[in-house]
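Dear Dr. K.,

Following up on our conversation at the group meeting, I've run the structure prediction for PAF1 complex component from Heracleum sosnowskyi. I'm pasting the input sequence below exactly as I used it, so you can double-check it against your construct before we proceed with anything downstream. Let me know if the numbering doesn't match what you have in your notebook.
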Amino acid sequence: MDVDDIDDFMVWATDDKVSQYCTWSTYTSKEQAMDFMTNIVAPHPWLRAICLKNRAIGSISVTPFKGNDACRGELGYVLVSKYWGKGIVTRAVKMVVSMIFIEWPHLERLEALVDIENVGSQRVLEKAGFHREGVLRKYIIQKGSIRDMAIFSLLSSEVTQRQS
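The predicted structure tokens came back this morning:
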């Protein structure tokens, strides 16, 4: 994903339904989007656009942990709301899983945190083979509210077993 995708990015970044469960607030200007592209997207070690007919309709990323946590990465994704429920993100997650453990062989665990009320996102992870490990109670302050988060994980050994 790069600055050429800015107009596509604005479709989901300005949608309150999309940002509802995200740590970021709904965007209100292209300047905010350009800042995001420059300061977050460009230097990110693994962030890709989710595309449909050569248009970016979302994004997916894996953020590596550091130090003693370097064996873990955190999965995140976002999609234009009109494409929700069509299996697009599930397919994107499966594609990421099939390559991230190869690209980053030091990675043993891929995890995702999902707001407890975001049932659709939890279903995506379950369909992609992630295991729900539990609920992290009162885990994060998001948009002024303390939220419970479900934690999901997938281990590299589980991906290897499925491919055998």
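Two things stood out to me. The radius of gyration is 16 Å. The mean pLDDT is 93.

Best regards,
J.T.
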